[in-house]
């Protein structure tokens, strides 16, 4: 599929989605959000894709925020609709994908950009990355899940400070907060993402998806993560991947998971 604002590349089980609006510092507009939804959906449906990497083009920005010009004159109801539709179409959609998503944060990740990175299952960053939620400096709040996912990742106090000050944190601070898992140079960022993806794709994609669902359940209102874990654990016993994994272990060989 041809896209206007993103690039997709598939290589050895890994689909890399690159937001490609360098003149706008990869800011998210309506078209880009829709294209990202389609790209994630296609990658998730592709049996050959075991891991998805999301990153930004260039060396300045992952995503420098949302395209403010698109909603500067919105009404209250339009603002609510913007947040609801954006969360459903992209941010919640990514967070609940069965295919693991790694965000490779290659520069500024601000506002909607940080919210997109937080929607990924985990994050790595280049040492020049800067992250923050500056929305209150514009008279609004994060609307794509930022007020919920940031406290889950860094704790309530740090999240409150980051949101209320509208400030940015460095990659090293983000690492110490638990917002990102690794910090490397710009040149090492995608190779590290691919290295981690390589470790993930050796495992059962069915079990990985079950693990994602179980972990997510622990952060959902009205869900009991332990109950979800029990259910998903049981389901694994009925999969071809479980049969292959256990048989390979008993035969002292590497498994060849069919992904079923």
Counting helices, strands and paired strands, the structural category is alpha/beta
Largest sheet, in brief, is: 6 strands, mixed
Number of helices: 10
Strand order of the largest sheet: 1-2-3-5-7-10
CATH fold type of the largest domain: 2-enoyl-CoA Hydratase, Chain A, domain 1
Which geometry do the CA atoms define?
Answer: globular
Name the beta content range: 15-25%
Q: CA-to-CA gap between the ends?
A: 26 Å
User: Which runs of at least 5 residues are low in confidence (pLDDT < 50)?
Assistant: none
CATH superfamily of the largest domain: 2-enoyl-CoA Hydratase, Chain A, domain 1
CATH class category label of the largest domain: Alpha Beta
**Care to count the β-strands?**
10
CATH architecture of the largest domain: Alpha-Beta Complex
How much helix, percentage-wise, in residues?
40-55%
Q: What average pLDDT do the residues reach?
A: 96
N-to-C SSE string, H for helix and E for strand: EEHEEHEEHEEHHEHEHHHH
Radius of gyration (Å): 19 Å
Return the domain count. Answer: 2
């Amino acid at each position: 599929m041809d896209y206007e604002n993103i690039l997709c590349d598939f290589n050895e089980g890994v689909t890399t989605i690159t937001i490609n609006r360098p003149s706008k510092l990869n800011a998210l507009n309506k078209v880009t959000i829709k294209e990202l939804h389609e790209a994630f959906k296609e990658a998730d449906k592709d049996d050959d894709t075991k891991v998805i990497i999301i990153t930004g083009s260039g060396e300045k920005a992952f995503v420098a925020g949302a395209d403010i010009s698109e909603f500067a004159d919105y009404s209250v109801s339009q603002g609510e609709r913007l947040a609801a539709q954006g969360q459903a179409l992209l941010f919640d959609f990514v967070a609940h994908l069965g295919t693991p998503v790694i965000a490779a944060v290659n520069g500024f990740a601000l506002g909607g950009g940080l919210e997109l990175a937080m929607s990924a299952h985990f994050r790595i960053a280049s040492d020049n990355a800067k992250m923050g939620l500056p929305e209150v400096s514009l008279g609004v709040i994060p609307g794509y899940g930022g007020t919920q996912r940031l406290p889950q990742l860094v704790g309530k106090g740090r999240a409150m400070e980051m949101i209320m000050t509208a400030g940015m944190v460095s990659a090293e601070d983000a690492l110490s907060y638990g917002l990102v898992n690794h910090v490397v140079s710009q040149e090492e960022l995608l190779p590290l993402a691919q290295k981690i993806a390589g470790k993930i794709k050796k495992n059962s994609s069915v079990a990985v998806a079950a693990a994602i669902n179980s972990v997510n359940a622990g952060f959902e209102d009205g869900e009991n993560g332990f109950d979800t874990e029990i259910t998903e654990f049981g389901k694994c016993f009925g999969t071809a991947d479980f049969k292959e994994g256990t048989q390979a272990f008993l035969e002292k060989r590497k498994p060849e998971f069919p992904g079923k």
